[in-house]
């Protein structure tokens, strides 16, 4: 078990199992100034190693509890209960207590609409808005335990609605605003939601985009919804059902702006959230109250080094993903952060929009995804270089393994060669960050999430569940329960046990491949399903993709293993060129040859792709993850599978059309 302990020493060069091919040697120690002021110091690791559960109790004490817990952890594998007997209110912890402590005038949210309208919301404003919304939910018949579906654009009401649900103890199920009526209907149905909170529409790429019609369709096809609460955002026409539909501004605005909260049990359900569907049908992941809030506020404070009096924090995720739940709403607000929230897309009205916002608000901490960083690389570094980003002091990455080249670009171009980068590995299921550097402690390695956070126990194991030595590769497992862990799959305990706890009994199987380097640091290698087997060699898609992205002409790459009569599987790569795509495509064969040789040189001849296709776009989920299973369908000449969580379904047609040219 590796409670964060770094072991140096033995490593065998030719480990069986997952490949051990990355040779990333760049190192970035924290600056002395950063370390001196950092929230997280080396002693955190020691304290957590000495008494893991006691360490979590210490973190829980940073919150306000109405009743203290009797037992910190009850572990009846695979079912955990944390802070048993304790009661608290999440909304009180995220809002009211900061106002009571004299911070009512501090800005909680600097909100920026895509068309350029703005709202500034202080903690005192937020307290009033949440109180009104909680009163409105009660008037609409929502009681403790009832489920509420939230289907909103990135407007402040999304955070207000979540907090109001938390306040009255009605678990929310946020559904990403870009999803179809189909996806919404199946999620409403699965959770039997009683109320849907939505908007007429939101702004997307410079135009209003309707939401209400999808809700109408979904509600017509389900039976549980009694009322639909509608925020007016775009002012576009909407169909209206007087029996069901109510306007937010009519019902919420007239409510009293105070609300007496009820403390909830530490294990009371806080929310259900469906996973992004990269590998399979989305699962309704259940999170509860006390352990979850402890985990997200602790990790947000130490990993992002938040200083509530001076930082301006910005997480660019959508509230419909777990990152938005844990690191826009619950973690930052519990820690009294001042944050930026942006409604729109990064290229509207121009490709410098994010950097313009960062400059204007003096953003100090930025948390985003590798897909966005690679997009910025593709657009060219002159764009961010046109803005003053000197206030930035910590950068974060989440969602996929970050290719070392993208990491180094992120630090140099966005971070001014100065900021630490925290590559944070976690999942919807884990609730909060699990494996990540601490920015004031860790000597950073581009492309590696490195060590389990203090309090987290992770291991890399082989097929039979034995820990691999340093230098070896296998499967990532979590070996001890943690406070933010999922409490189950909504309505399906059997699927919970089967999916996460049966592969390695007693341990949580994350579904991701990983390796340990010679220092014992962890490198995530992508989904286990994405690992390729080429002539008996197990090669991770991540490593080949990173080699491709390290070539100056490549902005993004996706790699899959396709069935091959001679090698079992053969590597097929899809690449998006940097800068001028047309010119690169014109180079055609020459570029493909150059890239094949480059991979061979970087990793070895065994990893040389059989085929490389130059494409303009890659299929991604709405949360920006590459959907390799669809590319595998193309590479193996099958019709493409389920595309319902794809951001742009035309991408697959485009790629299929390009296919013959590249053989
Ligand atoms: P589904 O489980 O339905 O297939 P999903 O796994 O894409 O969907 P999420 O919970 O949003 O849904 O994503 C978690 C996954 O994202 C992790 O299991 C891992 O594969 C990947 N991931 C997240 N952060 C990192 C990171 N820093 N490094 C490597 N991989 C990461
Ligand atoms: Mg998953």
TrEMBL record:
It is an enzyme of class 6 (ligase). CoA binds at residues 204-207, 323, 535. Acetylated. Deacetylation by the SIR2-homolog deacetylase activates the enzyme. InterPro entries: Ac_CoA_lig, ACAS_N, AMP-bd_C, AMP-bd_C_sf, AMP-dep_synth/lig_dom, ANL_N_sf. Gene3D superfamilies: 3.30.300.30, N-terminal domain of ligase-like. Residues 543-625 form the AMP-binding enzyme C-terminal domain. Its cofactor is Mg(2+). It holds the Pfam family AMP-binding. Residues 43-94 form the Acetyl-coenzyme A synthetase N-terminal domain. GO terms for biological process: acetyl-CoA biosynthetic process from acetate. Keywords: Acetylation, ATP-binding, Ligase, Magnesium, Metal-binding, Nucleotide-binding. SUPFAM superfamilies: Acetyl-CoA synthetase-like (SSF56801). It catalyses: acetate + ATP + CoA = acetyl-CoA + AMP + diphosphate. Belongs to the ATP-dependent AMP-binding enzyme family. Catalyzes the conversion of acetate into acetyl-CoA (AcCoA), an essential intermediate at the junction of anabolic and catabolic pathways. AcsA undergoes a two-step reaction. In the first half reaction, AcsA combines acetate with ATP to form acetyl-adenylate (AcAMP) intermediate. In the second half reaction, it can then transfer the acetyl group from AcAMP to the sulfhydryl group of CoA, forming the product AcCoA. This is Acetyl-coenzyme A synthetase. The gene is acsA.
């Amino acid at each position: 078990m590796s409670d964060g302990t770094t072991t140096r020493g033995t490593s065998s060069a030719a480990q069986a199992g997952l490949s051990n091919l990355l040779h990333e040697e760049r190192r970035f120690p924290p600056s002395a100034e950063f370390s001196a002021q950092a929230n997280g110091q080396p002693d955190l690791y020691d304290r957590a190693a000495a008494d893991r559960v006691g360490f979590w109790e210490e973190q829980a004490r940073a919150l306000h509890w109405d009743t203290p817990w009797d037992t910190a952890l009850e572990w009846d594998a695979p079912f955990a209960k944390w802070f048993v007997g304790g009661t608290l209110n999440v909304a009180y912890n995220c809002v009211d207590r900061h106002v009571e402590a004299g911070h009512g005038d501090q800005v909680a949210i600097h909100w920026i609409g895509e068309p350029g309208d703005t709202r500034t919301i202080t903690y005192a404003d937020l307290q009033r808005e949440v109180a009104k919304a909680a009163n409105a939910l009660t008037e609409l018949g929502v009681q403790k335990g009832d489920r509420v579906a939230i289907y909103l654009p990135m407007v402040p009401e999304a955070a207000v609605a979540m907090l109001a649900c938390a306040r009255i103890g009605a678990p929310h199920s946020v559904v990403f605003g870009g999803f179809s009526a189909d996806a919404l209907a199946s999620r409403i149905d699965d959770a039997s939601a009683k109320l849907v909170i939505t908007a007429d529409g939101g702004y997307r790429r410079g135009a209003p985009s309707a939401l209400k019609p999808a809700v109408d369709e979904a509600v017509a096809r389900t039976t549980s919804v009694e009322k639909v609460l509608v925020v007016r955002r775009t002012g576009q026409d909407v169909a209206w059902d007087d029996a069901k539909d109510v306007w937010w501004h009519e019902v919420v605005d007239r409510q009293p702006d105070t609300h007496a909260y009820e403390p909830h049990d530490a294990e009371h359900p806080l929310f259900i959230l469906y996973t992004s569907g990269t590998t399979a049908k989305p699962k309704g992941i259940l999170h509860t109250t006390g352990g979850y809030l402890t985990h997200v506020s602790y990790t947000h404070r130490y990993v992002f080094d938040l200083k509530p009096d001076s930082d301006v924090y910005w997480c660019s995720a959508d509230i419909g993903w777990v990152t938005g739940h844990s690191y826009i709403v619950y973690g930052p607000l519990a820690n009294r952060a001042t944050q930026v929230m942006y409604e729109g897309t990064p290229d509207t009205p121009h490709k410098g929009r994010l950097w313009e916002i960062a400059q204007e608000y003096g953003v100090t901490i930025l948390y985003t995804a590798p897909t966005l960083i690679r997009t910025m690389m593709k657009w060219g570094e002159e764009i961010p270089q046109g803005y003053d980003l000197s206030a930035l002091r910590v950068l974060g990455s989440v969602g996929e393994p970050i290719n070392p080249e993208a990491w180094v670009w992120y630090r140099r171009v966005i971070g001014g060669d100065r900021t630490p980068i925290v590559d944070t590995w976690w999942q919807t299921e884990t609730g909060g960050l699990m494996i990540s550097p601490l920015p004031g402690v860790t000597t950073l390695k581009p492309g590696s999430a490195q060590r389990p956070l203090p309090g987290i126990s992770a291991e890399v194991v082989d097929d039979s569940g034995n820990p691999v030595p340093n230098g070896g590769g296998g499967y990532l497992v979590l070996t001890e329960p943690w406070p933010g862990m999922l409490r189950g799959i909504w309505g399906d305990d059997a699927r919970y046990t089967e999916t996460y706890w049966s592969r390695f009994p007693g341990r949580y199987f994350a579904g991701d491949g990983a390796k340990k380097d010679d220092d014992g640091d962890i490198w995530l290698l992508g989904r286990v399903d994405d690992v390729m087997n080429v002539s008996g060699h197990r090669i991770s898609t991540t490593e080949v993709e990173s080699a491709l992205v390290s070539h100056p002409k490549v902005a993004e790459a996706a790699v899959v293993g396709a069935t091959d009569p001679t090698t079992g599987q053969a590597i097929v790569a899809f690449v998006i060129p940097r800068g001028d795509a047309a010119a690169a495509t014109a180079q055609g064969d020459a570029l493909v040859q150059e890239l094949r040789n480059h991979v061979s040189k970087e990793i070895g001849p065994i990893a040389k792709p059989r085929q490389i296709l130059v494409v303009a776009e890659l299929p991604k989920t709405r949360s920006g993850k590459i959907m390799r299973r669809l590319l595998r369908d193309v590479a193996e000449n099958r019709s493409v599978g389920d595309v319902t969580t794809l951001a742009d379904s035309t991408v697959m047609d485009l790629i299929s059309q390009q296919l013959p040219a590249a053989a």
